[in-house]
Q: What sequence folds into this?
């Protein structure tokens, strides 16, 4: 079970409080985790990744285990601690504006 | 007893103001979608409880929300949670926030470039929905005007959106350029006597019209004169801020351009200036009285570099002659130290008698007049900056 923490705006859209948990079959990567999140919460499609290119939106970042994974390949394996559920995968709105 | 509902979009959420026909006491609900920019909300003329809202974020993109109960509850009309997002054949299912330019050989047009601020070519990129315009007779049909400028339509209540690519690809697109707010399609007017005729406006490209339901379009900017473009009378490139029409006279259009208040009596084929005695003819909003097609309202703003009222006095100017002769409406409005702006979609009228007029400011006030503009009262004073105002008269 993968733990995912969404920013407040997206929690509101998805009608969830706190962390969400998703199942991922196969390798645990940014892509597979976000695919699982969007399958469970389809209203989030297009809010973290561009609909067409599937690239991360410019003001969205991905952190885990005190690392910035935003610029890692979407198909690179996430840290073991994320895959095991020990640490969450964090979706963050960039600190900009107000 | 008639009622009125005023839908207010702000920089940090949506608010719904309701009152009885006297329009003296108001209930305020909100913020809905707190923290998100609400560019526009509008109810369906065919079902006033069906409301579409454009919810936008620089971080998370575009969302379309829909209410079927007059704004009490909202939902995204795409795939419900828990359902697969693809069909068994692998095709994506409805996604109400998916706006993709149509480049297909069958119905689309190739993505070209438009001009960037410095005149260099810049690719078309979807950013947000500025305006939603429900069909006049079908609650499930709705148009969306987007940035970068294009027109989209949904015929299933906002679940799926398809671009009417004939506008973006009609030929002059490479000469369009963004205004300060972006290259936005902000005005959509459906002719009630002929729904295949639609007028739209883009900042900064100009006004355009289709007579065949959106397949083909032509610029309708003859008579506009804009000194901030190389050729002041060019076919396109004009920064049209807003256009308004009275449903009983669809061939008469009123325009607030960047500078100049303009009028057309031939559905946009030609325009003439009707700024007349306005103290400044820069501004954003323009609207028409619900029962008097020659009575129009503007809120003059000092200049393109000073987006606030002249002399710190917030004045609505009303013309009862369709332009040229204007009178200031000041009763109830601040007449000193007022430096707010009124954005292009932030004025609306209701159809009660007497006609109600409403506008919202960048300072978070929504002012209402229950007597056709003669006197004004702040309905709310301290909302986030107001982006849009739409009034609905309810039976």
A:
């Amino acid at each position: 079970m993968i733990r995912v923490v969404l920013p407040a705006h997206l929690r509101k859209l998805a009608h969830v409080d706190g962390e969400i948990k998703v199942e991922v079959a196969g390798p645990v990567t940014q892509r597979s985790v976000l695919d699982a999140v969007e399958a469970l919460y389809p209203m989030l499609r297009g809010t973290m990744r561009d609909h067409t290119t599937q690239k991360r939106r410019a003001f969205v970042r991905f952190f885990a285990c005190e690392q910035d994974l935003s610029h890692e390949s979407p198909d690179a394996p996430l840290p073991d601690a994320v895959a095991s559920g020990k640490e969450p995968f964090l979706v963050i709105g960039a600190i900009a504006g107000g | 007893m008639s009622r009125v509902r005023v839908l207010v979009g702000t920089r940090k959420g949506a608010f719904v103001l309701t009152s009885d026909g006297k329009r003296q006491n108001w209930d305020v609900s909100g913020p809905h979608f707190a923290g998100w920019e609400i560019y526009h909300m509008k109810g369906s003329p065919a079902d006033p409880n069906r409301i579409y809202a454009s919810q936008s974020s620089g971080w998370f993109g575009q969302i379309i929300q829909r209410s079927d109960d007059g704004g009490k509850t909202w939902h995204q009309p795409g795939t419900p949670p828990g359902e697969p997002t693809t069909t068994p054949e692998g095709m994506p299912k409805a996604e109400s926030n998916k706006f993709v330019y149509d480049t297909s050989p069958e119905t689309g047009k190739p993505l070209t470039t438009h001009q960037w601020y410095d005149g260099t070519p810049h690719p078309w990129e979807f950013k947000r929905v500025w305006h939603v315009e429900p069909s006049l007779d079908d609650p499930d049909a709705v148009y969306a005007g987007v940035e970068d400028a294009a027109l989209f339509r949904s015929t299933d209540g906002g679940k799926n959106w398809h671009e009417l690519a004939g506008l973006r690809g009609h030929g002059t697109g490479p000469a369009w350029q963004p205004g300060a707010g972006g290259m936005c399609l902000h005005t959509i007017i459906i002719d009630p006597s002929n729904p295949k005729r639609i007028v739209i406006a883009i900042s900064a490209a100009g006004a355009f019209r289709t007579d065949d339901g959106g397949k083909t379009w032509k610029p309708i900017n003859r008579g506009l004169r804009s000194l901030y473009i190389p050729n002041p009378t060019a076919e396109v490139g004009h920064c049209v801020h807003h256009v308004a029409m009275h449903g009983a006279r669809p061939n008469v259009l009123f325009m607030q351009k960047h500078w100049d208040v303009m009028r057309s009596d031939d559905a946009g084929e030609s325009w003439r200036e009707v700024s007349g005695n306005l103290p400044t003819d820069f501004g954003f909003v323009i609207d028409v009285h619900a029962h008097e097609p020659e009575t129009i309202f503007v809120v003059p703003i000092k200049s393109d570099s000073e987006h606030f009222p002249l002399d710190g006095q917030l004045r609505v100017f009303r013309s009862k002659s369709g332009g040229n002769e204007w009178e200031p409406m000041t009763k109830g409005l601040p007449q000193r130290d007022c430096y707010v702006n009124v954005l292009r979609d932030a004025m609306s009228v209701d159809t009660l008698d007497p006609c109600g007029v409403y506008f919202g400011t960048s300072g978070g006030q929504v002012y209402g007049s229950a007597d056709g503009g003669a006197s004004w009262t702040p309905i709310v004073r301290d909302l986030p900056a107001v982006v849009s105002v739409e009034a609905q008269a309810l039976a």
